[in-house]
Amino acid sequence: MRLPGHQISNGTVKMTAIDRRELLRRMLALGGGALATAALISLLSCSKELSPELPSDNVTPPSPPPSGAAYLAVARGDSPTTLVQRSISALGGIERFVRPGNDVIIKPNICGSGRTPEYATTTNPEVMAALVALCLGAGARRVRVMDLPFASISGSDYAYDSSGIAEAVGKAGGEMEVMTKMKFQKTSIPSGQSITSCRVYQDILETDVLIDVPIAKHHGNTILTLGMKNLLGIVDDAPSYHTADLSERVVDLNTVVRPHLVVVDAIRILMNSGPTGGNLSDVKLMNTIIASHDIVAADSYGATLFGMTGNDLPIVRGGARRGLGTTDLSSIKIEEIAV
Questions:
Q1: pTM to 2 decimals?
Q2: H helices of the chain, where?
Q3: Looking at the structure, do residues 84 and 32 belong to the same domain, yes or no?
Q4: Are residues 72 and 39 in the same domain?
Q5: In whole angstroms, how far apart are CA 19 and each of 257, 261, 332?
Q6: Taking Cα atoms as reference points, which of 63, 21, 57 lies closest to residue 42?
């Protein structure tokens, strides 16, 4: 049974569908009695569909790039700032994504391990500063940077500072925002196959522009963590996702949170012991930036840096299956840039 519901998308309330579990919740609020109460005991921050019948996907595929622009750009060289600038220029420029007056959120990977940038566990600070400067230069009203570190010793502020990102973002004119519990809201996942709702940070849902900036690194549970996996940093209680169904849950989340731009930081990549690392012998210097509007394509190219393809990664393969993008790099225009 599926009944009409509501979902916020880009600040607009839209009619969606609710599953039977949500119906039971509403029954309980109206005094639904013992049956509803028993059915709701197992609810956590992420809900799983009770019926074995799965809803069909209803995902809009990535839009094609403007005429003459690359679908995906790869820049290599010694200056992270220049690599960011050149790769985004190849996509049609930052103005393709950011308009004057826009509110912009940039989501790096700040896992909270306390590692400094050379350990390749958090997004490169210079990459973040370059993106902030580009967005402000395009007329963005404000640019905020945020993540929900999972292993911080002393909270988000410590992780922001130890990563070097807070200082770099501040100097570039951006704002670091600590993600507070009160701003996470239950969000429907209409085409969810493992979960049908989860608690997403409200501002992420309402921002004009979302830029996803993962660092390419090994991950013990998902083989690699790239753009799609990086979005776990926008949900409350991310550890609850780490079940046997982790990959499908990440794909479910990606069907409702769609970054406008993905910039993969591969200045240094972590080859082993991810996601928190700690041994410099596991770090490989690549001096590479990958950028695309297509998160699946960006992640697929990122996989090649580790000798793999997107189809080798369950999350990325699932994203392609669900219409979030393409793993077929031979089918798209890729611009390779040597700086």
A1: 0.84
A2: 20-29, 34-40, 80-90, 125-137, 156-162, 165-172, 202-206, 227-230, 246-256, 295-304, 314-321
A3: no
A4: no
A5: 20, 31, 37
A6: 21
Identify which of 136, 160, 134, 164 has the alpha carbon closest to the alpha carbon of residue 149.
Answer: 160
The angle subtended at Cα 285 by Cα 330 and Cα 133, nearest 5°, is 80
pLDDT per residue as tens digits for the range 242-283: 888 999 999 999 999 999 999 999 999 999 998 998 999 999
Q: Measured between alpha carbons, how far is residue 90 from residues 52, 94, 154, 206 in Å?
A: 45, 10, 40, 27
What lies within 8 Å, CB to CB, of 2 at 6+ separation is: 17, 18, 19, 20, 55
Tell me the torsion sign for CA atoms 48, 49, 53, 58: negative
* Three-state DSSP class for residue 65: coil
Q: Are residues 218 and 239 in contact, defined by beta-carbon separation less than 8 angstroms?
A: no
The verdict on residue 148 lying in a domain is yes
According to the model, what pLDDT value does residue 29 have?
A: 46
Angle at 290 between CA 289 and CA 295, to 5 degrees: 145
Alpha helix ranges (H) inside 207-265: 227-230, 246-256
pLDDT averaged over the chain?
85
Question: Has residue 55 been placed in a domain?
Answer: no
135 plus 226 within the same structural domain:
yes
Residues of the domain holding 7 = 1-43
- The per-residue DSSP string of 160-185 comes to HHHTTHHHHHHHHT-EE-PPPGGGEE
